[in-house]
């Protein structure tokens, strides 16, 4: 039953939703390669400096993608007031909400895979150094995992508001501020979900702690969002 | 025990803030009938229907659908209920076929039924076109197909003929009338137009300002549309009194310069007119008028003076 629900939600995805991981991957890879080639090629880090360059774009690209995905997926239902039709089906309201959340996560995993594959191709073409698998895979994967709280927040906002202006504004603001929040010296600001992705790169000391926190907070926010969704009344 | 009602609500009430949109409604929808749920705009039809589907909560009262309490059996009940609430909901970027496929997936039904249902609502030709390119009538028909595809025992249609052209309305009507007979389906059909209901429904419930003001078989409503004979005369009050003196039923309508009588039998009418003429009343005109259901509906809802 759960799988057929995921299948049904998958059928509903607009083409843009399926393209977002690809677009994210292309932006990440091309920005990293360009920035590294122009400014960091001669530096002491050599090709490995590329991962530090990528770090600057990772959280922004992931959070922005999540914001757009949540907004488009909820918008599909708001558009023709399909909630009433959807929720009059014999499927628990909570499962419908969770299915959407799972799809956002799956699509972001696709972004991770596309990014890793693309980076490997460029690496092999450009240098003879062995591929540093660990950081190559873990860096984007950790960002994806630590974005789970943002997925929960954005999906909740996008389902509550039929007008997507506010969810989009908050999401974009959060994506832009992620890096800056992580650089703040105040530990309180680090606790904001937007800073998690920028704190969980393997390049940052103590990142495992932040991944743990992200998953915990993400789970909590998802459950909270689901509960609020099931209790809501639909027009 | 087999229940005789497909929908049975008890003192169903819904408040929005202080205002009671639906007030202590006891809706009884007998099985295998087409129940016309009538009321002017804003009377509480859609609110009631939303409560029946569990989309909004009732403030008080309870709902039994197909013999089960909605509270706690919602999933089980919804498996047997098809619905179309207000405007049809669809995913515009997908084809009609895919829209239906989503419904079958969520109901755990085989895909094979899709083509059959598409044929019922005559959408086979357009099945693989994106729904956003459909006309309003086609979208409405797709909505009905989405409600029917799950093989429901109870079909709840809120204003299903909105936006359909006359031939589309006729088709949907025929389809609805067939359902109880051929498929054992109970239909709850809401509308603000009596003429709409009159032709398909066997049972009628009329809701006005949140209260159910009439509920019963359609005949009971038609019985109220008794014909009357109106006689236009120079002195209606005296003429009516004179007729009453003869044992005839008559009521003057001074303002209209006429009187009304329930005597419609031809022989008796002739005799009555002869009497009036012999008594030297001027008889200008004699007409028989029958109240239309529409007038009764307006009378019941107290809206004959609106607009």
Automatic annotation (TrEMBL), chain A:
Keywords: Membrane, Transmembrane, Transmembrane helix
Record-linked Pfam families: ABC2_membrane_4 (PF12730)
Transmembrane segments: 20-40, 52-76, 97-125, 137-157, 169-189, 209-229
Protein name as catalogued: ABC transporter permease
From TrEMBL, chain B:
Keyword annotations from UniProtKB, A to Z: ATP-binding, Nucleotide-binding, Transport
PROSITE patterns in the cross-refs: ABC_TRANSPORTER_1, ABC_TRANSPORTER_2
Ranges where the ABC transporter domain occurs: 7-234
Superkingdom of this protein's organism: Bacteria
Pfam name, any one: ABC_tran
Cross-referenced SMART domains: AAA (SM00382)
GO MF annotation list: ATP binding; ATP hydrolysis activity
Keyword Signal recorded: no
Hydrolase is among the record's keywords: no
Similarity section: Belongs to the ABC transporter superfamily.
Protein name: Bacitracin ABC transporter ATP-binding protein
Source lineage: Bacteria, Bacillati, Bacillota, Bacilli, Bacillales
């Amino acid at each position: 039953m759960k799988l057929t629900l995921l299948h049904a939600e998958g059928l509903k995805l607009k083409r843009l939703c399926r393209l977002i991981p690809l677009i994210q991957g292309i932006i990440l890879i091309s920005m990293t390669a360009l920035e590294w080639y122009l400014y960091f090629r001669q530096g002491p880090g050599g090709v490995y400096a590329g991962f530090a360059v990528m770090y600057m774009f990772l959280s922004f690209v992931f959070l922005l993608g999540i914001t757009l995905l949540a907004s488009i997926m909820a918008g599909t239902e708001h558009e023709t007031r399909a909630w009433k039709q959807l929720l009059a089906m014999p499927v628990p309201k909570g499962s419908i909400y969770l299915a959407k959340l799972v799809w956002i996560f799956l699509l972001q995993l696709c972004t991770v895979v596309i990014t890793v594959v693309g980076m490997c191709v460029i690496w092999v073409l450009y240098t003879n150094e062995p591929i540093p698998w660990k950081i190559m895979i873990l860096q984007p994967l950790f960002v994806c995992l630590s974005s789970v709280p943002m997925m929960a927040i954005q999906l909740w906002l996008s389902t509550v508001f039929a007008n997507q202006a506010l969810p989009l504004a908050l999401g974009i603001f959060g994506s832009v501020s992620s890096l800056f929040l992580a650089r703040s010296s105040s530990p309180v600001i680090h606790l904001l979900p937007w800073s998690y992705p920028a704190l969980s790169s393997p390049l940052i000391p103590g990142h495992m702690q932040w991944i743990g926190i992200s998953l915990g907070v993400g789970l909590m926010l998802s459950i909270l969002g689901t509960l609020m969704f099931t209790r809501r009344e639909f027009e | 025990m087999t229940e005789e009602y497909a929908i049975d609500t008890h003192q169903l009430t819904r408040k929005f803030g202080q205002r009671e949109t639906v007030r202590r409604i006891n809706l009884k929808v007998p099985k295998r009938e087409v129940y016309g749920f009538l009321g002017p705009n804003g009377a509480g039809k859609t609110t009631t229907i939303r409560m029946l589907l569990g989309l909004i909560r009732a403030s008080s009262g309870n709902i039994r659908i197909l013999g089960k309490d909605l509270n706690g059996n919602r999933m089980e009940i919804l498996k047997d209920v098809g619905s179309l609430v207000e405007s049809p909901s669809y995913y515009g970027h997908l084809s009609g076929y895919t829209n239906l496929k989503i419904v079958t997936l969520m109901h755990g039904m085989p895909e094979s039924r899709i083509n059959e249902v598409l044929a019922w609502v005559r959408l086979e030709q357009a099945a693989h076109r994106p729904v956003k390119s459909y006309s309003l009538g086609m979208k409405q028909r797709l909505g009905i197909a989405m409600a029917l595809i799950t093989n429901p025992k109870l079909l709840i249609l809120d204003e299903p003929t909105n936006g359909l052209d006359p031939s589309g309305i006729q088709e949907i009507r025929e389809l609805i009338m067939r359902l109880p007979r051929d498929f054992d389906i109970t239909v709850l059909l809401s509308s603000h137009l009596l003429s709409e209901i009159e032709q398909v429904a066997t049972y009628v419930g009329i809701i006005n300002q949140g209260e159910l003001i009439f509920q019963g078989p359609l005949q009971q409503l038609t019985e109220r549309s008794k014909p009357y004979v109106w006689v236009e005369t120079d002195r209606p009050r005296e003429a009516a009194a004179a007729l009453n003196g003869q044992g005839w039923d008559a009521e003057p309508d001074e303002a209209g310069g006429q009187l009304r009588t329930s005597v419609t039998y031809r022989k008796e009418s002739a005799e009555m007119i002869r009497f009036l003429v012999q008594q030297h009343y001027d008889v200008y005109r004699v007409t028989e008028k029958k109240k239309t259901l529409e007038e009764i509906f307006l009378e019941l809802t107290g809206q004959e003076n609106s607009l």
